[in-house]
């Protein structure tokens, strides 16, 4: 939107903006914010803004709590939901005494990854386009008390509501189980909701490519938008989620980006389309290569496949992520690549003969990921493949789930749990620390807190399904 601070200041004056919302990401991808009146804008752009890092999850302890936000003029948008005209400015975080980047600032990891990419001489730009899926529900209730644990999801278009008789009527036209891909109204009851979300996204600067109902019959949606550079692709995803969630709330609905909110229904993934460029030229196209790939693209794939287990705690960071990563659905658990096969974790989209359109599609990530960590992790794995010319195993164009058991058994799979993925990261992380992109401090913090706050907590909490299985033992 802007290229420098002067443009931000002029825009604020011209548009009569009243407030500036200074935003930043915590370690896990949840956006935080502080609001200032516009008379504080110039000083904040020039000198930054102090905040308490000890109050932010995954940041600092009380004795080292002072941190500083540095707004980025190139990452701004007008908030469509605030009553007063408000400009949002995204920020990175530095130590207030040294002005050195804070090692646990996720956005700073993206910035360091882009700088490292240029320093290698391999490429100067990484373009990335995520495809985050989400569920749109009419209502959600849940509780996790020791004596009262439940979840209740209400979706007017789900097949399980066909027998309901509420308020004296049921209008039918429910979407059959797992048949939600692209039906028209009246089965698709959310077309107007999607249109409203798309309009809000467009007004915020997104270039939308398409929007449609996804496979999950209880309200799964997908809205695709155009690619951007690594850092701004991560910025854009956080803005996308903010707009989708708030617009849904405004219209009386609720949205979740959980990878697997419903047992048996399609999970929500976030396929990531990636390509490298240098001096304005694409580097992934090779006329005679498999799927139209260059040697560099093939080596990039080799690196991603080699390190897929290690980057999984960033691309699929939640316990719930592994409810989606199970064989039998389109969820990609098999560490192979293919030009067409959607059961492979890495696919080469059919893009014709245009070198500029050639890219790879990494199908493993899901939208619970912090993009400021997930996107650099994918890039660093691929760059390791290019630097070391890692050759992937031969591509497989058959349905992997239809292979004979002895043949399928030999295909390497992703770890089936967050705990095992964290172990893989512990054992394989040197490629991430190249160029100090991921620091040892960040990696150790991520692993220890994920284990303590999620793995161990879920381990000690009985699940309601256990009562169905074991209550009468």
UniProtKB/TrEMBL annotation:
Question: Which residues does the record list as O-AMP-tyrosine (modified residue)?
Answer: 401
Instruction: Give me the residues that bind ATP, please.
Output: 209, 225-227, 273-275, 342, 356
Top EC class, one word: ligase
Q: Which GO terms describe its biological process?
A: glutamine biosynthetic process; nitrogen utilization
Cellular compartments per GO CC: cytoplasm; membrane
List where in the cell it is found. Answer: Cytoplasm
Record's catalysed reaction(s) = L-glutamate + NH4(+) + ATP = L-glutamine + ADP + phosphate + H(+)
Task: Provide this UniProt record's keywords sorted from A to Z.
Answer: ATP-binding, Cytoplasm, Ligase, Magnesium, Metal-binding, Nucleotide-binding, Phosphoprotein
Q: Which InterPro entries match?
A: Gln_synt_N, Gln_synt_N_sf, Gln_synth/guanido_kin_cat_dom, Gln_synth_cat_dom, Gln_synth_gly_rich_site, Gln_synth_I, Gln_synth_N_conserv_site
Which residues are noted in the entry as L-glutamate-binding? 324, 330, 342, 363
Q: Which domain of life is it from?
A: Bacteria
Cofactor names from the entry are: Mg(2+)
Domain GS catalytic, which positions?
Answer: 106-473
For the ligand (Mg(2+)), the binding residues are: 131, 133, 214, 222, 271, 361
Record keyword Ligase present: yes
Per the UniProt record, which EC number(s) apply here?
Answer: 6.3.1.2
Query: Which GO terms label this protein's molecular function in UniProt?
Result: ATP binding; glutamine synthetase activity; metal ion binding
Principal localization?
cytoplasm
Q: Where is the GS beta-grasp domain?
A: 15-98
The record, for NCBIfam families, names: GlnA (TIGR00653)
User: Of which family is this protein a member?
Assistant: Belongs to the glutamine synthetase family.
* Protein's UniProt name: Glutamine synthetase
Name of the gene this protein is made from? glnA
């Amino acid at each position: 939107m802007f290229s420098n601070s002067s443009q931000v200041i002029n825009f604020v004056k011209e548009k009569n903006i009243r407030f500036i919302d200074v935003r930043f990401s915590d370690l896990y991808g949840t956006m935080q914010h502080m609001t200032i009146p516009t008379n504080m804008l110039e000083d904040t752009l020039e000198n930054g803004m102090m905040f308490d890092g000890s109050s932010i999850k995954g940041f600092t302890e009380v004795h080292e709590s002072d941190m500083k936000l540095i707004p980025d003029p190139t990452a701004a948008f007008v908030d469509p939901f605030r009553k007063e005209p408000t400009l949002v400015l995204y920020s990175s975080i530095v130590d207030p005494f040294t002005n050195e980047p804070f090692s646990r600032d996720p956005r700073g990891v993206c910035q360091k990854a882009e700088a490292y990419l240029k320093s290698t001489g391999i490429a100067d730009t990484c373009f990335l386009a995520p495809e985050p899926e989400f569920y749109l529900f009419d209502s959600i209730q849940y509780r996790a008390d020791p004596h009262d644990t439940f979840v209740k999801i209400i979706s007017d278009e789900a097949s399980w509501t066909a027998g309901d008789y509420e308020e004296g009527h049921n209008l039918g036209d429910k979407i059959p189980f797992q048949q939600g891909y692209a039906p028209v109204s009246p089965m698709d009851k959310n077309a107007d909701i999607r249109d409203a979300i798309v309009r809000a996204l467009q007004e915020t600067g997104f270039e939308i490519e398409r929007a449609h109902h996804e496979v999950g019959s209880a309200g799964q949606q997908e809205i695709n938008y155009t690619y951007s550079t690594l850092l701004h692709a991560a910025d854009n995803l956080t803005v996308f989620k903010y707009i989708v969630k708030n617009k849904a709330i405004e219209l009386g609905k609720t949205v979740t980006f959980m990878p697997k909110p419903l047992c048996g229904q399609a999970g929500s993934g976030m396929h990531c389309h990636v390509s490298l460029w240098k001096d304005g030229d694409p580097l992934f196209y090779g006329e005679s290569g498999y799927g139209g790939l260059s040697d560099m693209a093939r080596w990039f794939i080799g690196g991603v496949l080699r390190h897929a287990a290690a980057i999984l705690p960033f691309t699929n960071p939640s316990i719930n992520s592994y409810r989606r990563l199970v064989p039998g659905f389109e969820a990609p658990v098999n560490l192979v690549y293919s030009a067409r096969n959607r059961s492979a974790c890495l696919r080469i989209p059919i893009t014709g003969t245009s070198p500029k359109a050639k890219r790879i599609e990494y199908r493993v990530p899901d939208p619970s990921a912090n993009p400021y960590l997930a996107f650099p992790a994918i890039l660093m794995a691929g760059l390791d493949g290019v630097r070391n010319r890692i050759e992937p195993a031969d591509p497989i164009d058959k349905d992997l789930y239809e292979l004979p058991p002895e043949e399928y058994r030999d295909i390497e799979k992703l770890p089936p749990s967050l705990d095992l993925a964290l172990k893989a990261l512990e054992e394989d992380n040197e490629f991430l620390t190249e160029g100090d992109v991921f620091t040892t401090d960040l990696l150790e913090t991520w692993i220890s807190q994920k284990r303590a706050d999620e793995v161990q907590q879920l381990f000690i909490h009985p699940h309601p399904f256990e009562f169905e299985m074991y209550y009468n033992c």
